[in-house]
Amino acid sequence: MTVIDPNGTGLHADAVRALSAWSVADADQEQLRRDYLGHLAEQPEGLYRSCLPAHITASAVVVDPDAGRVLLTLHPKVGIWLQMGGHCEPGDATLAAAALREATEESGIEGLELLSVDGMPTPVKLDRHLVRCTGKDQPENTHLDVQYVALAPAGAQALISEESLDLRWFDYDRLPELTDVSVRELVALARELTG
User: Fold this and answer.
1) DSSP bridge partners of 71
2) What 3-state DSSP class applies to 107?
3) What is the pLDDT of residue 131?
4) Rounded CA gap, 187 and 62, in Å?
5) 100 touches 147 (CB < 8 A)
6) What gap in Å lies between CA 116 and CA 150, rounded to an integer?
7) What angle do CA 82, 42, 183 make, to 5 degrees?
8) What is the pTM of this model?
9) What are residue 156's phi and psi, to 5 degrees?
């Protein structure tokens, strides 16, 4: 892992660049993009768990387009099937690198590649949601999630990590009941973009 800046200012600049460069036609996604940029403008530490009541997170839905399947993790705190993802760390060089690190750690799959536009990994969706990442006895805070698509090598075998209750491949058309609307939308978008 390459460290651009141990204080994370390089990561902050990259997040601003990635969100500023991302264009989206959907009005709700555009409003979220502006909200995320506003958060970053006000919060120099806005990418880290310590920034409360909200912080940027990075995630990636892992797909195997040739097999028509998606890898989801059964999250131990939330109790539903989600894409891989989590908090940014000071060693993350870019927002995309944070998403790729999380996807690799949680899937156990080496060689994942983020979907790119013009050779640059690009977000595909934003999702704002409440969580209790500071502890179950603490107030909820807001994750400002920046979501990517990670392409798995052909025939990839997943390896469950300690961060998951379960880890499974699902056919695009047979997602488990315990998923939320956001995950279903992300999987549909990934399918469309990689189809």
Assistant:
1) 62, 169
2) helix
3) 82
4) 9
5) no
6) 10
7) 10
8) 0.92
9) -55, 140
Domains belonging to the chain, first-starting first, are 9-194 (3.90.79.10)
d(CA 167, CA 126): 23
CA distances from 177 to 87, 173, 180 (A): 26, 12, 8
- Cα distances (angstroms) measured from residue 11 to each of 4, 85, 161: 8, 17, 26
What number of other Cβ atoms are within 10 A of residue 53's Cβ?
10
Buried b vs exposed e over 128-165: b needs ≥16 C-beta within 10 Å? eeeeebeeeeeeebbbbbbbbbbbbeeebebeeeeebe
HSE at residue 176, side-chain half, CA atoms within 13 A, is 17
- Residue pLDDT tens, the chain, 195 long: 333 344 446 999 999 999 999 988 899 999 999 999 999 999 999 999 999 999 999 999 999 999 999 999 998 888 899 999 999 998 999 999 999 999 999 999 999 999 998 899 999 999 999 887 766 777 788 999 999 999 999 889 999 988 889 999 999 999 999 999 999 999 999 999 998
